[in-house]
Amino acid sequence: xxxxxxxxxxxxxxxxxxxxxxxxxxxxxxxxxxxxxxxxxxxxxxxxxxxxxxxxxxxxxxxxxxxxxxxxxxxxxxxxxxxxxxxxxxxxxxxxxxxxxxxxxxxxxxxxxxxxxxxxxxxxxxxxxxxxxxxxxxxxxxxxxxxxxxxxxxxxxxxxxxxxxxxxxxxxxxxxxxxxxxxxxxxxxxxxxxxxxxxxxxxxxxxx
Length: 208
Prior knowledge:
The protein has one domain. 22% of the residues lie in helices and 36% in strands. The protein has helices spanning 2-22, 32-36, 155-158, 165-175, 192-195; strands spanning 41-50, 55-56, 60-66, 72-75, 90-91, 96-98, 102-106, 109-118, 121-123, 130-134, 139-148, 159-162, 184-185, 189-190, 199-201, 205-207.
């Protein structure tokens, strides 16, 4: 009996620790019910890369942190539910490779870019570089984030924001016909801090 009680307590402890771990991440799976109840908003984002020489193309992942509760969510073109996406190929110089449009159901708030993983390089601990905001019950297109290898040491050029709203809108309406709301265009923005920041390190992230 004592062993059984110990087992139950151990299981409860494990579940509690697991719950604590998951609370650091924003739920980002499809949640139409949560959206309709305004507990979730929908963010549409695109990413792309430019390279300075012929070479392999790598995946581009970004992490965003909710400024209020510090929880994060991650964009990953290789991990799209229900779709098989291959991002390994060859990119020619000066070309732009556009990754698939990404749609996430996340809790409302103001989000800040906190890390980028690209071409086996990891820029982390980013603060107040690029931000966007989202309200519950709204669908927001925040733009296309482009990493440009041609100017990888200048933050204003290494990261750029472009507008491909019509492409994103068409994708969203085809993938989620049950959601009748037309996406709002509210592009992510460089913070005032980022506008004054000039250098980016290929190994350690942004240099302040």
